[in-house]
Amino acid sequence: MIANSVLQTSKSRAAQEQLALLEKQAAPFEDQLVEAAKFIGLGLDTVCGSAEDGIDVTEGGRAVLYHGREEWLLRWLLKRLQAPSDEIPRKTPSSWRLLCYLLRNTPLPNAARILVERQFLSIIRRTLEEAQKSSNNAVAPRSNSESSIIEQETVKVSKKRRRSGELVTKPSTSESNGLLSLLDAIISAMNCVVQNTKPTSLTLDRERSSAFSVEYMKTVIRTTAEEASTILGLWLSLCHTALPQVGGLASVESWLAPFVEIWSSHTADDAPHLQFSLHATRPLLNLLRSSKDDKFPSSWAEQLEILVARNIVIPAKADQTILEILTKASVLQNTGNAPLLFDIAIRAVQLTGSARRRKAPDEKFLQSVFGSLRGSMVNVKGDNGKQMRAMLQLAIDHKLDLDLTILRDITSEYAMADWDILATLVELDANIFLLGEGRVVLLPHLMEAITTASLSPSWSEIQEKVVSTVLVPLMREFAKARDLSDFIRHWSTQLIAYEKFRKDDDIALFSAWEDEAIQIELQNLMEPSWNVSQISNVLDSLAEQVSEHPDAVCVVLQAIARSVSGQEQVVDAINLRLYQIMFNDNAADKLNPRYRWRSWRIISHTLNWIEMGDLNALGSLWDDKAKPFDSLSRFSISESILKIKPKEKRGLESLEIFRFACSTWTAATKQRRSVNSVQSLDKPVMLGLLRGLARDISQFTSDLQENKDLGDEICSSKQNFLQRGNGWMIWALVRCLFVEHPDVLVLLYASEEQMFAEMVEHIFLIASATYPANVATRNNTWLERNPTAFPDIWRLALRGGASTLRCDIPDSINNPIFTHRGLTKIFVNTILNHATNLSNPLLKTPGNNAFAIRSLNDLTVDEIPKEHRGQIMSTWLPTDKAAESGDDGPSYGSTVLDNGVLFLKRKIMHRPKLYEGMKFQEFIDLADTLAEADIPNRSDNLASLKDLARLTFISALQAVDQPRSTTYISEAFKKIQKKVSKAAEKKKHRLNFAVITMFEVALSAFYEKATALNELNIVQKDDLNSVTSSFKDCILSQFKDSPRKFQKENANDSLLVLSIIDALSTTGVDETTLAVLESAAAALVILAGKTDNNFGERLRTFMVIHGSKADDRTLATQLGGSVTNLYSRASIVARTDAAISRMSNEEKLELLQDLLGEDLHGLTQLDKLLAARQVIISIGDTRKPKKETRPLDDSDDEEEEEAFDLTEAYTILALYLRKCTDIVQFNIISETLMLMLETKRHNISQYNIDATLGSITVLCSPESPNLHPIYMHLCWLMQSVLTHQRLKLKGHSHLTQQTLQSLLRCLFTPLPHSNNKTNKFGHPPPWLLPTSHQLNATHAEAYTKLVLSICDPTVSAVQGNSNTLTSEKDKAKRIAAQYMKFVLQDYVRGQLEMKMLSEVREKMIPGLYAILNCFTEEIRDAVSAELDSSGRAVFMRLYADWRKFEKPRGY
Questions:
Q1: Is residue 384 within 8 Å of 373, Cβ to Cβ?
Q2: Amino acid 174: pLDDT
Q3: 1222: which of 175, 524, 669, 1140 is 20 to 30 A away, CA to CA?
């Protein structure tokens, strides 16, 4: 030991001498550090590593007992770091890591004294300043010139050499990496210092010395506010520079804390926050803005925001005179700091009260902050709109009211040019434009700006933004201010101005004032905002303007006509005024062609709500050739609707003329009595237009085939252009006819049936050509752009399954659209004529028309004409004519390989009828086709085909004595007989899986009607037995051979085995026959492994059910299995039913006990739980025998163990319900309990009911397991108790009360600011904690049913077998009032301490009123007295509402 100490001393002395020599010779500082580390007996690399890892390392495991060397070296290192003329030590990371090591291994008082002597913070400041200067110098050249990667990676060779003679190389790594290493080293040293300023938990003896040491170390970092803020600012600036290249440096998370602590420890100062603002605010905000980047640590943003709040916001709030001083400089340097400071200021102000509102001084302070920041931004040149918009949006998000004067100044400042700011201002406070000076000055300027923008070249880009975010919200604010009439005045004025500025220029785009969005908004606002008198005043004003400004009046009149909903008062006030304003005095003749189409739209809208008398008056005007009806006869003779106005370039007037004609016919048809005079006038015009439309649609189909240019518009979207392409026009015309005015189709069908059928056919072909399932890639540009245009029209016409032409609410039963069958025949016939795509000239591809199949499936069986049902059954099947001609028409695969076709035919066959031409041979051919097909999921097609065959045999056997049925059955039996005999003779004729399934269905159906078939001599019983026996022998033979040929990859093999076991299950098979197949079945299960069709599970289930029965020891094991899918669960149920089919009740109870297990382990296994549920269902509900009274002198002290019964089983399940850990497990147990309450009444004891209520209460408490959703199951379980075991609740009202209170509390949600002290209502269960799990109206309705069952029960629920003269119902209500008052009190307290959704509260009203119905005046007074003043106010309001709405009903 002594020898080692002497040796170490010798080495240290040598290292000290060598260090002095190197220092004297001005050797490189790195060499000096190496020797300095040797002085304390360590290598420099070891020291640096220990500093990086934060651990103490000593050479050879020597404990540092004497600190003389460490203190000497600490002084030497600080002297080198302090030297102002030599910056190399301060730039060397190793020197800071050595400093960190020395501080850890030097006593704190000594280290603190040395650090203070050497002015440690001055060293830190000088180091950071030099690093800042170096980083600035490094950034400048990079910004001026781009050096290549090769130049950056060049190794520069210094002229200096080491002591050994080797050259000193300086690799040219990036300055940021060197800076990063330096900062990481500095922070390691700073952490050593700052960590020692915190007291640590020590023993009492060491606590005093530790406290003194902490105070020593605090003197190291205590400095003036100016120097502390300077150091913090320098550090934040360097972090901002270095951190983009931080990579995965782990220590970065703790970089801020030491320097924040230095700032927090500064000495007292008169204005410390001014120093902070001067030196630290700018780098702080720069770093905070950049901290949103993923490269920055996530914890930094919070720390930086706290710094801003504590040193800028809170001091400014305390003394608002320094607000501008603290913020102005940072905003002038970067306007992006303004929204950042405003956001922190808003969030730094604490909300108070249950409503979470700000105090008035806080609101005033935030307004001052906004004003100060905005004032600073004004002095900065450039576009600051983005920053201003961000600040305004913050005010919106945090519901902060700003002064209107400031907001008006902002509006004027941006000169109505920034639409984003204007939209934000309107959203924040539209009173900027509606009150005071804003209405006089700003509002006209805003309106003019919108009009001017509508004429600008960039209007197409900003149109949607201006209209939807500025104009429409402003219109909505006018309505809220009850001044919608003034908006109409501005609307009209700006339309006049727009026309004046436009000067007849051909502008295709709609202006903002012509946009459809304004008309839609007026439709929502007009009737709620205006009374009849106001509407009349507006119309009077428009009537005065129409002669001078018809264009503007036309637009407004169209919007008003569209906004009338049909209220009688409004309709009576308007009548024909809109027509008279527009067309009297020839005002319409003055319309610009741009607006002429709107005059027709005014009449079309009017016809939607016009009364019969006004319609007759309109017909008289038409008859007198008044405007504009005088031109209709000329329009109706046009060969094309698109060419009605030859001079009009694809405008909208032709469409609106057609719409007017359709609206007139609809209005005349839908009146209480058809207006024949109007119909007679409209009929020739309508037919002429329809003929033109038919030609246009035909030409449109040809244009699609040739892929002509039909326009670029997207149908069903908003159109802002006046001119439209032919494609859009045809779509709009067809939609107008088929969707908006289907009544016209009756006229077209009656007058031009052939033309109507051709029109329907063209529309259906176009719709089919765009249906995704029909075509993978479209060759037509217009169809590719509008893939859903015509399919949507067709399906809207079909009304999603209703009749094509059926009104939602017919006016009368005689409505021709409601009863017309001819139109439906046209539609269905068109669909069936194009069942495949070969007949579609736009496709011409083989295969089924998926759109035709979808359309037929959308119709119900009643809506398909009877004559077409048989056609559907024969469609998608090969015909003899097609087979002879060799056409590529439908095949059997068209039906059996398309699930849509199978579904359609099954739907038809649900109306039992054997249609002409149906043959059993078709099913055999379909089965063969399916067996040979290579398609996925053939089992689905097989199931559909099997169901279709079953329905067909039901139809055939329904009337066995009918010739068609007799023929079908006899032919089917002969086919089966022949096929089975061939399969028995030769293996090559063996049956495939699909044919086996068809034979299974047929033979099963024959056995159900075997007696009738035998008596009518159609199928003899002996023959049926013989064929069935041969069929079973044949498939059993195939089953035996299947293991030898089975291939897992071949779906046919698994489907064959499954079809065989299904057929054997249906036709019957004995145990002895299956005994020889057990080895084959086991082999198949092994070969198949895990498959998607549950092959092994189904095969095992079959063997368990039909094979040899298991003994009692293995029975419970065989009932287990997977419950992950529907079939697995059905398999468990089937195996359980088969196992207990021959058991007595005692044996079933033993099996149930075995399934549950002695330690109840079976309750944790879902398969065992499911099997146990099935066993419980099968056990009879018998009364338990009364126990015999044992004599008193019985010497046997041991009680006999009671036998396991359903009562004990219920107890086990009820108590375990509160311990469930899986939602499926909970659902099975709760549903089993409900089933037992209903069906096993004699086995339910009083303790069972108490345990059930206890479990419900626990599950609604904080101790509940985290299961969701369970509330509805809990309510259902309680309802079962009330319904089936009500008598057992007598005398146990306290448990009922407790359960209802627990369920009620779940309907409330704790307030965000509530805590353990304020929340006296109880905590919610864990399954309600996520916001998405909050209960809604459905749950409240379930709870209300429980309350009604108790407080307002039915007579049968409480009467039972009692025949007393007193009312049992009144007695039950009196008892309920005694404990339900506590439930009502909980509701009142919950309203005060927690929150409840309005929809939940609404659904609970009937239950609350039911409780009040039970109260007497004494109980009401007692409830009121037990509440505090706030609760009493809530209760009395509820009681007043009850007296107002409920008491008049007789309570």
A1: no
A2: 43
A3: 1140
